[in-house]
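User: structure tokens for this one?
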Amino acid sequence: MKTISTTKNLFFCLVLSFFFSGFSQTKEQQFIEAHDAKTGEENLAVYNGSVHINKDVVQENESRYLYDEYHNCTVFYLGQTFYNIKCKYDLVEDKLVILPFNSNSTIGINAITMAVDSFYMADNSQKFINIDQAAFSAEKDGFYEILVANDGISLFGKHSKKKFQRIIDRKTFDVFQERTDFYVGYQEKLIEVSNRKSIVKLFPDKEEEINSYFKSQKQLQKKDFSLFLKKLFLQISAS
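Assistant:
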């Protein structure tokens, strides 16, 4: 169980502010990129870490990662910001994997998790925070996706994959089962939500509004539960 500190509260507020301020190519970013180029990107601290070894034997469309290919990421590492870092997110080990600068291979480096404050990927559309840096006590360590961040209410998704083996045509392959657990940051705690009852328990004064939303959005609930919850909590926080 983590403790809450003023420093974490301040950092978390700063991260959320940066994430949701409509990130763009700013003078600050241009300056940092120019400085990194002058210093030598291969010497940047973000490239510290152990070699990422992947021995999975998989069929097509099976992967331990959130996205199988490397994406351009922005990484907040030990209080510094690094732009255009090639990375992917290992959901089995809960590790950010970074491709070394000018590498001709696909072998990455496991970023030091405790040093990664936060990162975002997929053209900056997905934002993740190291929950150790957040202003909430949590049972599970690691990276959480920020889905909603408003005053008083935040919604997070905890992505993971479980690895197991399956015999196909007398050959053994690794396969992965993906899941996402959802948590509400409320009153300095992360509280898991999975259904209407758990949400009403958190916000009893919003019961009528929550019930109405569940009745009217049944198709979205079945199709994309993450988006379903995101829209619900945006509605709750605005009302």
